[in-house]
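In this supplementary section we document a worked example of the pipeline. Step one takes a protein sequence of length 107 as its only input; no multiple sequence alignment statistics are reported here. Step two produces a three-dimensional model, which step three serialises into structure tokens for compact storage. The input and output of this example are shown verbatim.
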Amino acid sequence: MPQPNMQQMLKQVQKMQQDMVAAQEQLKHEVLEASAGGGMVTVKISGDLAVQSVTIDPEAIDPEDAELLQDMVTAATNEAIRAAQQLAADRLGPLTGGLGGLGLPGM
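The serialised model returned by step three reads:
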């Protein structure tokens, strides 16, 4: 059985790392939006999981029921994070080629 060409393998790993860095940089510029409470609370988050904004409809602000508003903010934020993580998995997954377990930087 022939030995793998280590130089060629190293070049492939370096290219994969460059592609990962580029894809991660692109994710910073993607903005996803999620809402809760029928649109009463909307959260925008970047693909690298930085919350960009939280918008609350004034009708959702009930001093007698702050817990409901808190729950809507939590739900919208969690949904935005889930969507951003899915976007990252969709974009970065094919680049790793199943090599995520090698402990390489950025993987």
